[in-house]
Amino acid sequence: MKKITILISTLILTVTTSVAQTWNIGASNDKDVTATLSNGTLTIKGTGDMRDFDYYNPWSKSYDHNTSITKIVIEGGVTNISKSAFAYFKSLTEVIIPNSVKNIENEAFKECSGLTTIIIPEGVTSIGDVAFSNCHSLTEIIIPKSVTKIGDYAFASSRGLTKVTMLEGVVSIGRYAFSDCENLMEITIPNSVTTIGETAFYKCSKLTEVNIPSSLTSIQGHVFYGCSGLTAITIPSGVTSIGEYAFCSCEGLTKVIIPKSVTSIGKNAFTDCENLTEVTNFASTPQILPYNAWDGGVFDGVWIRNVTLNVPAASVDLYKAAREWRDFKITGMEIIGTETAVQGIVSAQISIYPNPTIGVVNISEPSEIKVYSLQGALLYETFGTQVDLSAYPKGVYQLYINGEVVKVVKK
After folding, report:
1. CA 59 → CA 33, 116, 233, 296, 329, distances in Å?
2. Which residues span the domain enclosing 372?
């Protein structure tokens, strides 16, 4: 009798755990969309939007809920992933999203710390605020071209994230969107982006390179604060302002290129960039920088007397007279080409410095170079970023760089 009782109890338990539960969760009509939970898989199906939830939903009883749900399947026809729908699903590892989904709403997958991969399908147009924040097991995200908006804090503190690829189509990146993603090493930002919110990449300390899109007109405050792995920054032509603390505490930063379009640089923009060695500023009139006697202003914490400042040759005296710039090691440069866009390295605009020189002339991008005497005799040709005139006598030389010419004086 005892064995029979145990067997019956086991059968009841097995049947109980396999029983599926279903809830109506449609937004306009609750029966339009249903959620079914069976054996750890939550299946969403129907037509239209899911209704919003405030953490508590039919399959959740508390903030420590959802430890048994490991997979979510959303079937075609469902058009959104609603607010807080799957927040705090700690054991969730897999999500299937159809291309019928248009919006991933605020906090949809907040603190799904076990989620390792997710494919955001073509068709999604917006990723809401805090949608994937604290998803620590996510390592890579591809944002499809249909997405135009990435919300505030969308991926904040997702500390396992190493690579983000945004396809052409994204227009705005929200405030703090990728802040504290401390293992983020690679990010692709397309030229469709016109707005990057303040503090968007705050303390992404392993980020070593970033392409700032030429479509931006301003760099907001604190955007790259604490990105200590960055070594070089090129501000694209068209940007008119650099916000407060934009590159503060970028301790690995050694080189900065600022286009002539920049007229405003905010307080502490480059504070504590302690390894900065070279700034190239194409502005013919020196920008008036905020100067605060208490913290030193834009370059506080930088030993600017050891930093080379390359400026247009015709503007050297203006920079030497400007209080905010005069303590740099100022060098005049000739500029060939026209300024169109500066991406990664200067492309259509090439700087030549120092000029005059006592020997070596630097070229701001790798180029085909031919060196001629003033009389037109070809002296030598090379490819690279330097011309060495040390072995030649004092005088004037002509450098043909990518088909354009500039005269260089050797003293």
Report:
1. 15, 22, 48, 56, 65
2. 354-410
65-92 exposure pattern, b = at least 16 Cβ within 10 A, e = fewer? bbeebbbbebeeebbbbbbbbbbbbeeb
Tell me if 172 is assigned to some domain.
Answer: no
* Per-residue pLDDT at 23 exceeds 70: yes
Q: Is 189 among the domain residues?
A: no
Could you tell me the pTM of the whole model?
0.79
Alpha-carbon 306 to chain mean position: 29
Contacts of 333 by beta carbon, 8 Å cutoff, 6+ apart? 280, 310, 311, 312, 313, 351, 352, 353, 354, 355
CA angle 375, 381, 385 (to 5 degrees): 115
pLDDT in tens, 185-205: 999 899 899 999 999 999 999
Cα–Cα distance for residue pair 287/165, rounded to 1 Å: 34
pLDDT digits (tens, 9 = 90+) for 257-303: 898 899 999 999 999 999 999 999 989 999 998 866 445 589 999 99
Among 64, 80, 115, the domain-final residue is 115
Separation of CA 154 from chain center: 13
Helix (H, G, I), strand (E, B) or coil at 314: helix
Establish if 81 belongs to a structural domain. Answer: yes
